[in-house]
Amino acid sequence: MCSWFCIGLGWLPILVGIFMGMSIFIPYAISVSLGHVNAGFPYISDTGTYIPESCIFGQLLNMTAALAFATMYVRYKQVEETTKDSVIPSGGRWNRLSLVLGSCAALGMSLVANFQELNVITVHLIGATGCFGLGTLYCFVQTSVSYRIHPHFCTQTTYRVRGILSVIALAAFISTMVFASLANAKWDADLPDKTKWDKDHAGYTEHVVSTVSEWILAFAFLSFFFTFIREFQKVDLEAQLKPSTYFLLMGSGTSGMYL
User: Fold this and answer.
1) pLDDT tens sequence across 27-80
2) Alpha carbon 16 to chain centroid distance?
């Protein structure tokens, strides 16, 4: 008998949570033990800045980005399939928009993984802003989609939970950005390493508020993905291979075109 984990595609958002958790806590444990960052709420990307934890951080976060994209694509196809014969105002446009936002957010996560903040800070910040900012918009758009397809394809409780998580993500994102700017404005330029903030440093309070907000934002995203589990357990995904229309029109033979 298949376990609860294996029902439908419910395992996909679970894997996102597992790999996201590993990409956060494994580098954190290594970086703290080696003295690369202080234990008290560093930025998540600070824990993946130095070798060897940067290698682990990059690999795990890239895998998380791939799994997150797969989850968002399955969600897109699920909504498209379950609503194709129903009349839902603007449902298709919102669903497509969510896929675009989610894809860009996953790309931003990959940029964060591959471009460490002390090496290529500009690309790292673009990736982080894309991941968190567009990821927050994805949550709101998916909440809108959930509202539009309820009660037939989504429960009232589910879309309300998604709405609450979206608001938490937005508040945490704004707090992260605002207090990071305030902390950096107070940072002493003579101190080169921003991964080690101490209580004696100017802007320490603002820095902690920013980093705590970032952790809250990450776990809001994680919780949002977990809301897909029950819905994903109701679907399966299969790939279909067929001859290329181009070669059929050109009159090519079909031998070797099927597996």
Assistant:
1) 999 999 998 888 778 899 888 888 899 999 999 999 999 999 999 999 999 888
2) 8
